Amino acid sequence: MLSIFFRTCAIALVLLIPRGLPEEKFVYLDRVGIVEVSEGDTGCLTIPTSTLQSGDDIAIVRLQNPQSYFLSQVRAKLASRCSRDPDEDPNASTYSIELVQGRIQAGEVGIGITKFKGPFRILDGLVRGDLEKSGVPDSFRVCTSMEGLHLTVWHGEPLKSPLRWHEYYYLGYDVVPSCTNADAPSEAGSSFSSVR
């Protein structure tokens, strides 16, 4: 009789022990930002969230063809801006980062994703990662307008799926536009021919 009691208690205890904390919901506006690579495998991350700590992982998606991804870590939160973009959101936080895996050419601009354990994979030259853990891999894209870059994250195929994240990066010089109307964020309400 006593052994049945202990067995029942042991089963109840196993059922009550948490199986690990649920993963926090992926919020694109908090966890995706712009990375600018500097000399010596360092760079700058501009992102709305102000809670990153030294040592936090940042995945960088390099958008040049073919795309690739790299691992970096936060070195420090900066009191002043580190971005070369004069149109940077004044409310955004900036962090110095250091590449810990891979090498990216100085001056490149990419997409930084915080606290994402992956995996990433490359399919047809494009990086894919299921950021939301929904079973649908996100894709990453960059296109040019007249003076800058439009960086985007799509929940599925680029230009055919819901747009999850968009940021503009001002280059400060004229470039040949490559963006299409499908690249336009829905809140813009206009075509890219009228956007910077």
What are the key terms here?
five-stranded antiparallel β-sheet, 38% strand, 196 residues, mainly beta, six-stranded antiparallel beta barrel
Shape: globular
The end-to-end span amounts to 79 Å
Extended strand count: 11
> Which series of helices and strands comes N to C?
HHEEEEEEEEEEE
Mean pLDDT: 84
- How many distinct folded domains? 1
The DSSP helix count reads 2
Classify the helix fraction into a percent range: under 10%
User: How large a portion of the residues is in β-strands, by DSSP E?
Assistant: 35-45%
For the biggest β-sheet, the strand order reads 1-2-5-4-3-6
SSE diagram, text form:
Layout: H1 2-16, H2 28-31, E1 32-37, E2 42-47, E3 57-62, E4 68-78, E5 93-101, E6 109-114, E7 120-123, E8 126-129, E9 138-144, E10 148-154, E11 163-170
Antiparallel strand pairs: 1-2, 1-6, 2-5, 3-4, 3-6, 4-5, 7-8, 8-9, 9-10, 10-11
